[in-house]
Amino acid sequence: MKTLFKVAAVAVAAAAAVGVQAQDFPSKDKTITIVVPYAAGGPTDRVARDLAEAMRKPLGGVSVVIDNSAGAGSTIGTAKVARAAPDGYTLLLNHVSMATMPTMYRKLAFNVANDFEYLGIINDVPMTLIARPSMAANNYKDLSAWIAQNKGKINLGNAGQGSASHLCGLMYQSALQVDMTPVPYKGTAPAITDLIGGQIDLLCDQTTNTTSQIEGKKVKAYAVTTAKRLTTPALKDLPTLAESGLKDFSVTIWHGLYAPKGTPAPVLKKLNDALKAALKDPDFIKKEEGLGAVVATDARVEPAEHKKFVLSETEKFGAVIKAAGSYAD
Question: Are residues 97 and 18 in the same domain?
Answer without folding.
Answer: yes
